[in-house]
Design a protein that fits this description.
Blueprint: H1 11-17, E1 23-24, E2 38-39, H2 45-56, H3 59-75, H4 78-92
Parallel strand pairs: 1-2
Length: 101
Amino acid sequence: YQHTQDSSSAAVRWGLASGRPVACTPLGIFDDVSDAVAFLPGTAPAELARGIRGLLDDAERRQQLQQDASAWLTAHDWPRLSLRLRGLIGALAQPSLPWVT
């Protein structure tokens, strides 16, 4: 992903859905899941190893990551988002609103 032009990674969502802590390299493609993942200190092999070792040694951090991921998944659940979008569209379509002609 270091040289991608993508704005987000769908693959990281598979990791989040696994219910296990997820670690990402510090790249912009993962910004949209920043509340639910741990960022490693870099992209070089030694940095990846150091970051993974730090997570393996910190049970409390791993537990917090799992809780954060669960909250992120709930907030981004398709049925929940579709109901929200439906409500927004419905509200905008109301003829009684001053900006609807």
